[in-house]
Amino acid sequence: LWSLGYSARLLKTNRCRTAASNTSFPAVWMLLAEYSGRIPGPFVVVKKNSFFTMPETAEDKSDTELYSPHPEVRGMKVLNREAFKRTIVVPVLKVKKEIVNTMLKSLKHTVLQRPGLKRVMEDPEDEDSRLVILDPHKIPEFSLGESEQEVLKKLNVLPEVSKYNLELTYENFKSEEILRAVLPEGQDVTSGFSRVGHIAHFNLRDHQLPYRHLIGQVIIDKNPGITCVVNKTSIIDSTYRNFQMEVLAGESNLVTKVKENNIMYELDFSKVYWNPRLSTEHSRIVELLKPGDVLFDVFAGIGPFAIPAAKKKCHVFANDLNPESYSWLLHNCKLNKVDSKIKVFNMDGRDFLLGPVREELSKEVPLLKGEQKTYHIVMNLPALAIEFLDVFKHLLVGEPCGTAGLPTVHCYGFSKHDDPAKDIQERAEASLGTSLAGRCSTYLVRNVAPNKEMLCISFQIPADVLYKRPCPEEGKGQASCVALGFQAMPS
Questions:
Q1: SAM-dependent methyltransferase TRM5/TYW2-type domain spans which residues (predicted)?
Q2: What kind of fold does domain 86-168 have according to CATH?
Q3: For 175-253, which CATH class?
């Protein structure tokens, strides 16, 4: 029931409110099947993608006001940790040390729960007692409520709340609290980044740039394992899919290791494309494959589709134009012990489709009459991939052996249209020269920027697009072929 309700909500989210309100029981199951990737359909399925946020975020306004660094840090551009010291007054209870743990359990909703701050402190006046810090928001008047007093009475603890001067230092503040205190008041605070191994990757806004080196150092201080922080300084190059970046803090080593879906990859982040926000999409496509299937990865990068597919015992042909990506793809194939299962190419995507892909399909497809083999073509270059779809027009010569042998294409694209699914489908149809109505599914991968979506359109290449049929009347000349609607093949 939860799954049915979730699917209906997904449908409603994607501008199909009328359809959702009238969805019959079988229709909902069709949507569930489409969500699992098993059948094509006309719907867009929303999939949320996660990325690294600062692991410590302020809970509410009152919490922010209480746990704010010293106001003099406003405008700081060079990090001075000592300047963040501040003393706040908090409520405490004096408790015999032997019953501290019992009291913490009994008053768990009243005791201070802030990460990084000790809840129990030594009592400077009595070595047999401890001072337990209470949550200032729960005890605003430094007096306990009746329920708390009843608990303490059972524990033979005097329900007398004292005031304690608690010193907060740079180490006690959360990343967001530090940056909110430093950046100009009212400005957006950077709260999220992509993590690539030991590297934290930011896309800072203009008003944050004067503070970029401080931001970088704070991120290193507050996130164990991060030793380098970079900021993107240019848009992604559509040819090699890399971008210029500036090291904000830490070491300048941009060769890193990442683990995605239990597979290890190594890469130079400054020279190849890697986006940790696509891990779910990589997994989604690989889950569609079965052992023995053939995968052609046209823009393979360092192998996030190709390598897990090879591990699944698929036959893989992987290509990338970027020489650096090609080199790291070879490296990662060896690293994951699939170098004998993947044929790797360093070609333009169009040449790869017209060469190795066409050659393999021409060789294999005629043999499919007695066996079923599924072909998948992944085209993950969202800025340009749809423009490559015209390559499939009459890519093969002959007669199709049935729809089972027709390759399934998974093509990615960006859209700023009000209806991105419709936009992507229409652009794909324009490149292919045919309608895909009822023959494709469109999947919303992620939101790239405000009003900019990344989508994947999946479809089997129609036979009348993929195949160039030989003229059955070759001996009677060109005129008879034209009359029959065929194009004469050169001898």
A1: 193-463
A2: Alpha-Beta Plaits (3.30.70)
A3: alpha beta
